[in-house]
Amino acid sequence: MNKQDPFDKIELPGVKNVLVVASGKGGVGKSTVAANLAVSLAREGFRTAIFDADLYGPSIPIMFGVQNKKPTIAHYQGKETIIPITKFGVKIISIGFFMVSNKSLIWRGPAASSGLAQLLSDTEWGELDYLIIDFPPGTGDIQLTTIQRLNLTGAILVTTPQQVAIADARKAADMFNTKRIQVPLLGVVENMAWFTPEKHPEEKYFLFGSGGGQQLANQINVPLLAQIPLVCDACELGDTGQTIFASTDGTLINQFETLADKISKLPTVSASTNN
């Protein structure tokens, strides 16, 4: 990859909006939300890409079913440029494409931050309405590097209704609101809001409690953008490289379509025009 000053701003010409999808803890379905939000925006006609910033546990290639593919490298004026994989109308870049299968990535914080910045800047994103960045959980080096070196449009927080998840998401919100950071919080997505049995679609079981997403949204003064139900085929779809639009659950699809619509109409998001 091309050498870059570790303190330079990363310029992404042609990219209108850079949105990060974040969570305070792992296991809340953040990557599932990020991947399907990207697909939902693309289905609405927006030029969309997703960047997998979880360097130690990249899952986006599996969720898109492209884990065995490799981006091509183009050479232009002495510079190497990475051409993203495209599926479901979404351009995709992940460190997972460049790792040996089943091998861990053993990088200290500075090396991980530098690698992430290099991957972002060396990719040919083209003209985009939305670049979705799937953050790793927490508030560490990867998050800070991205926040400091990119001009971010805003952040979306993902949580489950559980109080332990809410507490950690509140810490992530505090990071974005810190005076020296100040990234706009666009809203909260409550994932696994309830469980609906496949044979009884009218029933709701609140396995992880209820009202947690709205509680967090109220505490940090942002809207609750969506409540994503836990349905029987959601996990299987992600594991087999399919999107929620292959689901038989209309509520699940409707929530993601509504989420994409709300994101595209937020006043802090640059006006985008469907192709």
Word description of this protein:
With 275 residues, the protein is an alpha/beta fold. The protein has a single domain, classed as Rossmann fold (3-Layer(aba) Sandwich), CATH 3.40.50.300. It contains 8 helices and 10 strands. The protein has helices spanning 30-43, 60-63, 109-121, 141-149, 163-177, 212-220, 234-239, 250-265, and strands spanning 15-22, 48-52, 72-76, 79-83, 85-87, 90-94, 128-134, 154-159, 185-196, 224-231. The radius of gyration is 18 Å and the shape is globular. The model has no long low-confidence stretch (mean pLDDT 86).
What is the CATH topology classification name?
Rossmann fold
C-alpha end-to-end distance: 32 Å
Number of domains: 1
What kind of sheet is the major sheet? 8 strands, mixed
The class by helix and strand makeup works out as alpha/beta
Work out the strand percent: 15-25%
Mean pLDDT value: 86
CATH superfamily: P-loop containing nucleotide triphosphate hydrolases
Query: What's the β-strand tally?
Result: 10
Architecture, CATH level 2?
Answer: 3-Layer(aba) Sandwich
Quaternary state of the chains: single chain
Low-confidence stretches: none
In order across it, which strands form the biggest sheet?
A: 5-6-2-7-1-8-9-10
> Cα-atom Rg, whole angstroms?
18 Å
Number of helices: 8
Fraction of helical residues: 25-40%
Q: What general outline do the C-alpha atoms trace?
A: globular
CATH class: Alpha Beta
Q: What string gives the helices and strands in order?
A: EHEHEEEEHEHEHEHEHH
